[in-house]
Every structure is written in C-alpha cells, then in structure tokens.
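Quick one: sequence plus manganese (II) ion SMILES, need structure tokens.
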Amino acid sequence: MEALRFVTDKTAVLIFTPVNRRYLTGFASSLGYLLLTSKGNILFVDSRYYEAAGKRAEGTEVRQFTKIFDQLQEVLAEVGAEKLLIETEVSVEFYQRLRSKLAVRVAPSAPLTNRLLQLRSVKKKEEIESIVCAQRIAEKAFDDILQFIAPGVSEKEIAALLEYKMKQYGAEGIAFDTIAVSGANSSLPHGVPTDKAVENGEFVTMDFGAVINGYCSDMTRTVAVGYATDEMAKVYETVLNAQENVIKTLSAGITGKQADAAARDIITEAGYGEFFGHSTGHGVGLEIHEQPNLSPSADKIKLRAGQIVTDEPGIYLPGKFGVRIEDMLLVQKNGCKNLTKAPKHLIIL
Ligand SMILES: [Mn+2]
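Reply:
Sure thing.
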C-alpha cells in the first residue's frame, strides 16, 4: 500500500471513497472504511465483502463491521490517535456523524485528497496494462462499428452496438455513457445519442471507453458517411493537426497549459478558436476524469512521467457539424507514447 505521510502517532486517516479505498487496497467494494494508523491499517467491510476482502485486499488487516463508529473509536483509542483526517469528498451527514460519535478531532483534509489524486495520476506498470487492455477492446468495437454505420442507422443503435461489442470483447463495463452523435448533433461536444438516423454527407462522432480491472479507456473518432464536403475535410484536418501536435509536444516537465496550447494554437490560427470550448485533455485511470488536466488554466502543474492523459481537441460549428479526435497518451521522460492504435485519417464510409 502507498505510504501516506499524513499518518503519525497522533493522526490517523480514514479513507471512505470507493475509488481511493480500491486504489490503496486493490479491493473494490461499494461500501467500506479504510483506517490508516501508525500501528497498522484496517479495512472495515460488511458481511457481503468480508470473505473476498480477506483474500484480495493488500497491505491491510480486514475486519467485519456492524457498528462502524464504535469500532473506529475503539481502534483510535487503542492507538492513541487524537486526530482523524478524512477526504474532502465527505457528505455533510457522514461528517456530522463522525464528529458526534468519535472522541477525536475529525478534519476533512484538502492536502490528503490532493495527495491521493497525485499518487493515482502516476500509473504503475499493472495500471498501464489494464488501461491498454481496455483500449484494445474499445478499438475492436470501433473496427466492428465501421461495418455497421450507414444511412438509416440511428445514433442510439450505434451507441448500443459499441457498448455491446466492448462487453462481448471482455470489458467488465463501459467507462461512461457512450456518445454517438451525427450531423448537426455532432456540434454538441457531449451530445446524447438520439433516434436520429445517420444521413449521407454527415459526420458521426463516437466517444467511448471500456473498463478492465477497474481502469477506464477513452477514445473518440469522427467518421464521414457517404462523402465529406471541403469544409468538413478542412475542419477534420485542422483537428487532426492539432491533435498530432500535442503528441509531438507532450513530455514530462511541460505544464498542462503548454500541452493544451499545442492543440489550441493550431485551431486558433486556422480561425476556429472560438469553436473549441473545452480543454484538450484529462488524466484517465480508475476514474474517467482524473488529474492532470490539459487546459489553459493548468499553468502551475507540470506533467510527470507515468501519467496517462487524453488528447482530444475538437471544433464544433453550431447547427452544422463537429469533429473531435481523441487518443490516450502515456507521458514519458522525453516525449510520450500513444496508447491508441485506431486509425485517424478521415474515414469516409
Ligand atoms: Mn475524454
């Protein structure tokens, strides 16, 4: 388990969010409490998870809970803790109960939450392998969908088949609700698939990801159906140039703002700056959106080797069409590695 510098003789840490509990113990459960103290770690789970946690949770003792507040208090008293740091993603109700039922000072800690986000952002070998595995599954689904997209097929059908195919190829789940939007709908960066049928001369944008071992993948491709107008081709090439310039620029040591600018400057120079409203990318891991952000405001945080980020610039012309192209990149000491293998040239089906 990751050592957290927040734990001292007098200070214990309680992790209650499923994502951080899973990250630290390797064990996934919808409910549970991981108590970190100077004298050892205890994962409290209920009867549903007790047997499995005993086998799979790493770096911690496992105990079954029935009265969690009493059991936490007992351990805190035993180890002599005076303060309990908790993650900031706490509900008001849970915070108030901790404060009223425990005899120690309970403090939500932003540094604790930030440290966990930082730790999670730099991926270990097995984490990278899971993300690549999820990405390969999404790519197989994408290959299949190209045979399926044709005039008359609806956005909802495209989204449903992508999700079906990812599960058929072994995904344990989908990373987020699949986006499949066509024609004028594709100018909505996060549009929801509708019953609208795809027509000739339209773009179809698909944004989707699979989950393996809890880790998400994330990719977007935009394809044309029948034909692409000169304007469609020009916008597509602009987005692709911007997207590829990020790959050329990305490296440990640059800021999230510099990575974002690698895409944004090209789109702005081509005259489409006002039609690229979102940030260029985000970290991916146990959650689909993690640290770091590649955005104009990310001028303080430098990218680190081992982080996995998306590279997904787009241009969205209201009422006309939109284009987004997204790969996942592994930040390296000198450069980056593209984890996405799907083709990026303008595909006309
Ligand atoms: Mn994304």
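The chain has two domains: 11-120, 122-338. The chain has a mean pLDDT of 97.
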